[in-house]
Design brief:
single chain; mainly beta; 8-stranded mixed β-sheet; 4 helices; 48 strands
Amino acid sequence: MKTILAGTILLLSTQQIIAQKADNENIIRKNLTVIRTNSAPKIDGILDDEVWQNAPVAQDFVERNPNNGIPEPGDFKSIVKVLYDDTGLYIAAKMFDPHPENIKRQLTERDYTGNADIFGITINGYNDHQQSVLFMIQASGVQADAKIMTNANDDFTWNAVWNSAVKIDEDGWNVEVKIPFSELRFPKKDVQKWGINFTRVIAKTNQNLTWNHVDNKKASYLMYDGVLEGIENIKPPVRLSFTPYISSYLNHFDGKNASSFNGGMDLKYGINDAFTLDMTLIPDFGQTSFDPAVLNLTPFEQQYSEQRSFFMEGTELFNKGGLFYSRRIGGFPSKYPETEEDEKVTEYPAKVKLFNAFKISGRTNKGLGIGFFNGITEQMEAKILNEATGETRNEVVEPWSNYNVLVLDQRFNGNSSVTLVNTNAMRDGSFRDANATGFLWDINNKKNTYNYFGSLKGSWVMDNGTKFGSKGQAGFAKTSGKNRFNLNGVYATKNWDINDLGFSTTTNFANYNAWYGYRILQPTDKFNNIYLNFNLNYFHRLEPFLYTNFVFNQNSQFTDKNFRSIGGGIETAPFGENDIYEPRANGRFLKVPAYFDSWIWVESDSRKKLQFNVSLDYYAYNEKGRNKVIPQLYLRYRFSDKLNAIWRFNTTLSNNEIGFAGKDDENIYMGKRQRNTYENSLTSQYTFNDKMSLSLAFRHYFSDVTYNGFSTLNQDGTLSDTTLFNKNLNGTYNSWNLDLRYSWWFAPGSQLTLMYQNAVMNYLEVSRMRFNENFSTLFNEPMANNFSLKLTYYIDYNQAKKWVKK
């Protein structure tokens, strides 16, 4: 969906439009002055309501892609009309098409886009070019919505409650929409002035059209919205909604059954026109699918994406600066119990329970965004058995904990901002506490051709003393024209640590980067798009100073007139690397030989029933017998507008790599190993209509590791053969997941979800098994089977009042 949106933003010209220059930059903005209606149109996609007859009109769309700036094709004219009342905006759109029988209308689940024509609306209630809300309606009737930002940190997890309808007729297709004011954010003023744009995607020709011309020479498309005026003296209803839920879980594992029944509620309250309180009462944070576990041999923790809706929606402010990783809240306990010789742990909590959470976010009239998040987790205990006496005891492995995030984000000059972020984790008793603070800046010049960006961040960890670390970045970029560049530097000190409420890996380094990019701004005779870029990266250790790496990288991408793409590139580290992380010890490093990497990929036209992407990546090291091959395959087949399937096959074959094996009081041991990893996944979905779908996904992953010898690590980073280390580290990790999911949006904002999940995994201390042997051993393990049913129902306070009166 991001790819489509990046090429689909809008602008208007209408009977009541006056072109004007945007503030502080030479951008032409069209004006649309809307009128109030006393009679709401019926949202049915049939544009015969009398109220539409005299409504202001927006038309004369302009092509954005592939031919930027040319008028819309005469046979594909687009006309949009807008009205309002005290409850919201009403929008009607007529998209002409000479062959309506060929309009693409693939069905997908809500918030996903398929091979379908699209009509989109972006609205910026603050008219500041920095953040808009997007509402998309596909010709299939499927809705999608998102919060769109200039820094591409778009929030597609945001869900609004709005009404739309689609109708295909002999002239093309129609859209009718009502967007309640409760789903928009705007200043408290008698007279409103908003940024607005409309977009249209014609799927069969891959054309993106916008009302206001979006110039691809510079800036983000949010800079090119038009102006919506005429909304005056509205009296929006109280913004209060409740989403109660009930859920039931049945789990079976290793002959044991467990079940639970839960009920709770999410609450959303509009404190004023700009600020909103979101609260979850008796939360239910069951995941929607399994995490894609891998065999992790790196020095770093594996990071997983968030799957819990409360932490996914409306978090664009909280994600600024990268200091907040929501999986820390309700994740694994902080410690593992300490046991005596005769003791063993019999019960250990897999996850920490969330007691409560809320967030407040919004933006003032002067562009100051304020976000505050608070979450509280419960105390968790492990049970320990003394096998000699039979006695049991409990030990706290996670105390009552409080997590806070505060964000202040000031926008100014149309496309610039400065931000202050603070995160805080406080745990009861002797468990460690932590705090992190960051100051960020993102400044664009008046013409939006150059950008200055950076950050300064500090981390404080309180655990038997205070440990302070810092991280900083500064950069300068040209962001316009065919030729663009970026120069920046980043550093992180040895004690940089935000892992109590954030996610960080590498520390004690500095990196200096130079990037140059070239792109065409208009199609050529053979290509719609050409992108070329070149990167230089220099890394060194901060304390004590040590050269670590120098990398050159070049990427190319070409898209032809039939929307087929090919790309590739090269990368080299000609002087080798001093790896300061693989030895897992401060002050030590491992010498890695120079390498040359080359890759190529091909992607077919996504409009076809069969789409594929094939890639091959090959690393050649300056060491005999050492290399890495990464072939990947993606296949998507669209059986019909309702049924499609995707198969992904990813492989990594690494020969004679060197990795950490172990250490003792005197030595660090490294192993030479062969590692083969295979990942197969198949996802399929049958979509009954624009409200109901059934999806099936499975993933099989296994990684095979064989060690061919061990060495001791010398102080200069070289290796020496050794016979002191002879542990069997050969192994095979297997993981299988299956997710079957039925979803039904039976009313606006209300959903029924039925899921069946199973999973099995194992780790065997053998390697180089044949595939059938490997697969059969996996299914000899106990399998986890989970069945869940969840029902959520959206209740708007204003609608509920009417029910009570009736």
